[in-house]
Amino acid sequence: MEIKNKILQAAFKLFMRNGIKSVSMDDIALSLGVSKKTLYRWFENKDQLVSAMLQEHLGKMEADCCHFCTEAKNAIEELFQIMQMIRQQMAGMHPSVFYDLQKYHQPAWQIWTTHKNKFIMQQIIRNLQAGIEQGLYRTDFDLEIMARLRLAQIEDIYNPELFPPDKFDLQKVQLATIEHFMRGIASLKGHKLINTYKQVVEQE
């Protein structure tokens, strides 16, 4: 299994740096110093490799999110921890990755869609409920509407018509939308805590 993990790690690095479409099985084999035949011993084709790579990556993300949920002192701190994770993961990520997944690798795109609609949706709802119970979020919004709005934002960020990658840093867009969402649902107590984490002083 060691060689399989090395293949997945090498593929992930190349895909994130160059985009998925532009990376061939030859490129991956070359980066590992192995023959292409070795790759095909573990993966029948690039489509299968992309799906396996994404499945492993999302598994790690789920573990990180569950850790944040357990360790964070409150719902807002959890969102700041997620923002830090996004900074790390999106640093240097090629802007075409999501587009390539959707257009050229439908099985992998379905894995992402299932992850988004199930795991991410559950995490958003849980965080909203926790924030309300902690008095950090307002109580006058429809929880399911807000959860679905946040879910839609996650994918809209990667829409090249909405945010052309040659004009926008997608990491900045992602972080800006999370903070905007967080401030929109925060109570007065929540706003004060957000400013504390950001070390911002606002005039009353």
Rg calculated over all Cα atoms: 19 Å
Secondary-structure-derived class: mainly alpha
> Strand fraction band?
under 5%
- Regions with pLDDT < 50 over 5+ consecutive residues? none
Reconstruct the topology from this structure.
Layout: H1 2-18, H2 25-32, H3 36-42, H4 46-71, H5 75-90, H6 97-104, H7 106-133, H8 143-156, H9 170-185, H10 188-198
Would you kindly provide a written description of the structure presented here, covering whatever features stand out?
With 204 residues, the protein is an all-alpha fold. The chain has helices at 2-18, 25-32, 36-42, 46-71, 75-90, 97-104, 106-133, 143-156, 170-185, 188-198. It is built from ten helices and no strands. Helix 1 (2-18) crosses helix 4 (46-71), helix 4 packs parallel to helix 7 and helix 5 (75-90) runs antiparallel to helix 7. 21% of the residues are buried.
Q: What's the gist of this structure?
A:
This protein is an all-alpha fold and about 200 residues long. It has helices spanning about 1-20, 25-30, 35-40, 45-70, 75-90, 95-105, 105-135, 145-155, 170-185, 190-200. The mean pLDDT is about 90.
Comma- or semicolon-separated keywords:
204 residues, elongated, mainly alpha
